[in-house]
Design goal:
alpha/beta, about 30% helix, globular, binds iron/sulfur cluster
Length: about 300
């Protein structure tokens, strides 16, 4: 069965035939499109380590975040079409750069192709872990398909409130889907494994970008993680929000995060007994963290 023919890979359930060139909410046909393959040094320490993470940024997205830093590829669809064969070669080229892992960024709308490409790359010598870097807006059934392909999940949980997810990402059902998808990722990778240098080989790190004026929503997400996944879950609290793209249309988020807001979320993290957190310096809110999508490495 070709899952692109009646595409229901993600919560948008567009039910269109992408093999015939039609596009749904994510804006992509069944041909893989990517915008950059590079070595990324700014992921969490067990992902970027000392040698970097071999990122592959895919074009298109099933969310419409008004503050998207990568809008040129997510909404404006800048990218280069590549075959499954070529994607598998890119993974091997990344491995040859001596990176710690292959980091697939926003690949939900290309999952069937990704599975084939990883299989091919492994047949041809790929041994480093596969990281699935996701917005969290996923179906648990699609995540189930990735069992055995993905070693490390790096999902966002962006919102608890459906009002916020509707307003800023056009997805009122975001938390309903993200919570189920993250539970499935956790089921697959609950037993976290690090190598002797502290580099993650298997596991899950949940990311949460704290938005200005929204710390109560952040508290609810942390409470949910503790109650549903346990207090040893690895959580990365991101301080890098920058009001870019369409954020200026929303007064309450048209500013950087205040230090006090970030500090309060970190305090809540510890108050409720969570143990494993990654925190960011304030200097992280800097556009130098936004990659330049010049199709290099593709
Ligand atoms: S992957 Fe794209 S076409 Fe398929 S359901 Fe999601 S948004 Fe629609």
């Amino acid at each position: 069965m070709n899952l692109y023919e009646n595409c229901r890979l993600c919560p948008r359930n567009c039910s269109i035939d992408r093999t015939g060139g039609k596009i749904g909410f994510c804006g992509e046909s069944s041909t893989i499109k990517a915008a950059l393959a590079s070595v990324h040094n700014w992921e969490e320490p067990p992902i970027s380590g000392t040698k970097g993470s071999g990122t592959i940024f895919f074009t298109g997205c099933n969310l419409k975040c008004v503050f998207c830093q990568n809008y040129s590829i997510s909404s404006e669809h800048s990218g280069k079409e590549i075959s499954v064969e070529r994607l598998s070669e890119i993974m091997l080229e990344q491995q040859a750069r001596d990176v710690h892992n292959i980091n697939l960024v926003t690949a939900v709308h290309f999952v069937p192709s990704v599975i084939k490409a990883v299989e091919k790359a492994r047949q041809n010598g790929l041994t480093i872990p596969i990281v699935y870097n996701s917005s969290g807006y996923e179906k648990a059934d699609t995540i189930k398909m990735l069992e055995g392909t993905v070693d490390i999940y790096l999902p966002d949980i962006k919102y608890f409130s459906s009002k916020l997810s509707a307003k800023y990402s056009s997805a009122p059902d975001y938390f309903e889907y993200a919570s189920a998808a993250v539970k499935e990722m956790h089921r697959q990778c609950e037993n976290v494994i690090f190598d002797e240098n502290g580099i993650m080989q298997k596991g899950i790190i949940i990311r949460h970008l704290i938005l200005p004026s929204c710390k109560t929503d952040s508290f609810k997400i942390l409470d949910w993680i503790r109650d549903n996944l346990g207090n040893e879950t690895y959580v990365s609290l991101l301080n890098q929000y920058t009001p870019v793209y369409n954020a200026a249309k929303y007064k309450e988020i048209n500013r950087r995060l205040m230090s006090i807001e970030y500090t309060r979320v970190i305090e809540h993290f510890f108050e409720i007994g969570l143990k494993n957190g990654y925190m960011q310096e304030r200097s992280s809110a800097n556009s130098s963290y936004t990659p330049i999508f010049d199709f290099s490495g593709l």
